Amino acid sequence: MKTIFEAKATNTGGRAGHVKSEDDVLDFDISMPNSNGKPDPKSTNPEELFAAAYATCYAGAVEAVAKSHDVDDLGDFNVTAIVAFNKEEEGFFLEVTLDTYLPTVDKEMGETIIKEAHEMCPYSKATRDNITVHLNLMLDE
Question: Within a 13 Å sphere around the CA of 71, how many CA atoms are in the beta-carbon half?
Answer without folding.
Answer: 19
